[in-house]
Write a structure and sequence with these properties.
Layout: H1 2-17, H2 28-55, H3 62-85, E1 88-90, E2 96-99, H4 108-135, H5 147-170, H6 175-185, H7 192-195, E3 199-200, H8 206-239, H9 247-284, H10 289-313, H11 315-325, H12 327-340, H13 352-366, H14 372-397, H15 399-503, H16 505-571
Antiparallel strand pairs: 1-2, 2-3
Helix pairs in contact: 1-6, 2-3, 2-10, 3-4, 3-10, 4-5, 4-8, 4-9, 5-8, 8-9, 9-10, 10-11, 13-14
InterPro entries: 7TM_GPCR_serpentine_rcpt_Srh, Nematode_rcpt-like_serp_H
Protein name: Protein CBG21878
Pfam family, one: 7TM_GPCR_Srh
């Protein structure tokens, strides 16, 4: 009966009472398309993050490599499952919803368990990342040193959270009747409320409060564990500084801890936003399908943001990305440095300072990780420094060459003077350019202000015209409505006058008298006709009686004749 009632409600009442939501993101199709777009945009980032973790992780980060890989793999798995197979479409503030992914035909309870398993896996992998960072500090009293203890901690977190939700699945309400109850408070849900197989976890009873408290307890319990591991790291890295740990090791640990905080902050915010929306919906008892879909999309977006935060926050992966995008610029710098490594030519000698500057620039830019090619460049520049130094020493010993040097210096001074004059001209021209640009900007701003005033005036006129047109259309509609109402009132007045004439006492009494007289005449006519019929009946009865008597006489005569005949035959006649 309840399914028939839902069908009748959806086919009759729902189209008349409910206005369809025209927002694309509030529809099932919008949620599916945006979910898959997010997954398709996130997958390249997640694959690149996996490559960086596996191939570009330095030895100093080998202890956190497995934790980062787990977080990234859970994010990939979560994005694919929640973006393609189990896309949640919720009807908050009520604890019910449907799943509209590729696995929509499977059991809704199985889909919900898969959804919660994925979420718990992602959150616990973030917890493992903080726990690993905390346990790597040697002085930490709360460090989890044994693998068996860590596995037990993960087991309790994962299956303990699922166990908290088990009583709800054992006490699910009757789905069809609860749908009817929900329709009393939510008369116009999305059409998937009627067309898709829905799972209602609880409704207005103890289990609804239990489920809300259990979900919030699970979330804040995981956040409390992250906070505890962070406090341990802060205490042992910043407050309790042990002399057994070197300053370099402590610096690396602090950098790693700060990086983990920043890379986890963005994904945690994307989990925190849905929780705030859920709490706000529970408090206001307000329903908006667009906000519900945005909450589901934020959970899917969390996965791509996790991988992106790992790439941007961790320094080795960030440097690898820079090397990809800045490879062209570095190649140009290398060509400039290779020019200094060309063997020294006496026909066009460079001074020692030029080679020395190139050498210093190259050594400082190389850093600690120097390749074999860079070593060859440095050796070539050092050879050029020696040959340049010897060349200029020989020239200084030779007087003829000294004259040439003086001539060269004089020419250099002339060139420098010319350059200084050119520089002054360039400075003057740049000043003029600045003035012209400022004047240009002022003129543009003046013209812009004038155009803005004109545009505002025109828009104001257009708005006034649109308002007048709207008011005119509304007045026309009102006039049409009033004319229709007036016509109805006129017809009603005519009907009332007819009814008054028909039911007026004098007319009504006369009409009754006439009808009574007509009935009397009809009754008299019928009585006369009946009398005639009765008389005719009596006449027929009399003739019938006479006929019967004649028949009896004839029968008696026939019998007498038969007897006479028998007597004659007995006498021999």
């Amino acid at each position: 009966m309840s399914s028939d009632s839902l069908k009748i409600y959806y086919e009759t009442i729902y189209p008349e009472v409910c206005i369809p939501d025209s927002r694309f993101l509030a529809s099932k199709e919008g949620l599916v398309i945006y979910s898959r777009i997010i997954v398709f945009l996130s997958l390249p980032i997640q694959i690149l993050c996996t490559f960086c973790i596996l191939k570009k992780t330095p030895e100093t980060m080998k202890n956190v490599k497995s934790s980062l890989l787990k977080v990234n793999l859970w994010s990939i798995f979560s994005g694919i499952i929640l973006g393609f197979f189990v896309i949640p479409l919720n009807f908050f503030p009520h604890l019910c919803g449907v799943f509209i992914g590729l696995a929509a035909n499977s059991n809704p309870i199985f889909q919900f368990n898969l959804f919660m398993t994925i979420l718990f896996g992602v959150l616990i992998s973030i917890n493992i990342l903080f726990e690993n960072r905390s346990s790597l500090i040697a002085q930490n009293r709360f460090a989890i040193s044994r693998t068996s203890t860590r596995n037990f901690w993960v087991f309790i977190n994962f299956f303990g959270n699922l166990a908290l939700l088990t009583p709800v699945f054992l006490n699910l309400p009757d789905q069809e009747t609860t749908k009817l109850e929900i329709l009393k408070n939510l008369p116009c849900p999305a059409k998937e409320f009627f067309t898709e197989s829905m799972l209602i976890m609880a409704y207005q009873d103890f289990w609804e409060s239990y489920l809300t408290v259990a979900l919030l307890f699970i979330y804040f319990n995981l956040m409390a564990q992250i906070l505890f591991f962070s406090i341990c790291c802060i205490y042992y890295l910043f407050i309790f500084k042990s002399s057994q740990v070197s300053a370099q090791t402590r610096k690396l640990q602090i950098q790693s801890f700060v990086a983990i905080i920043f890379q986890s902050l963005i994904p945690i915010l994307f989990d925190y936003i849905p929780t705030l929306i859920f709490l706000d919906r529970q408090r206001k008892n307000d329903y908006d399908q667009l906000n519900n879909n945005l909450m589901g999309l934020s959970i899917i977006l969390h996965n791509g943001m996790t991988s992106l935060s790992i790439l941007l926050v961790q320094k080795p992966y960030r440097n690898f990305l820079k090397s990809i995008f800045l490879s062209k610029k570095k190649s140009e710098e290398l060509t400039m440095q290779q020019a200094a490594a060309v063997p020294f030519n006496p026909s066009r000698p460079f001074p020692v300072e030029c080679y020395a500057n190139k050498l210093n620039h190259h050594v400082l830019g190389a850093g600690t990780n120097i390749s074999k090619e860079q070593v060859k460049f440095i050796e070539a520049i050092a050879k050029n420094i020696r040959s340049s130094h010897t060349y200029f020493l020989e020239i200084s010993k030779n007087p003829k060459s000294q004259v040439q040097i003086d001539e060269l210096q004089r020419r250099l001074e002339e060139k420098e003077n010319e350059n200084s004059a050119l520089k002054k001209q360039v400075m003057e021209l740049t000043k003029k350019l600045c003035k012209m640009e400022s004047e240009k900007e002022n003129r543009i701003s003046d013209f812009g202000n004038k155009d803005k005033i004109r545009i505002k005036a025109r828009t104001a006129k257009k708005l006034d015209q649109e308002k007048l047109e709207k008011e005119e259309n509304e007045d026309k509609k009102r006039i049409e409505i009033l004319e229709g109402e007036y016509a109805q009132i006129r017809h009603l007045k005519e009907d009332a006058s007819i009814l008054r004439e028909y039911y007026e006492p004098s007319h009504f009494f006369k009409r009754l008298v006439k009808e009574n007289e007509q009935l009397k005449t009809k009754i008299l006519e019928k009585t006369t006709a009946m009398d005639r019929v009765m008389t005719e009946n009596q006449k027929l009865k009399k003739t019938n009686d006479k006929a019967l008597k004649n028949i009896d006489l004839l029968n008696e005569n026939i019998e007498i004749l038969k007897k006479k005949k028998k007597k004659k035959s007995s006498y021999g006649f």
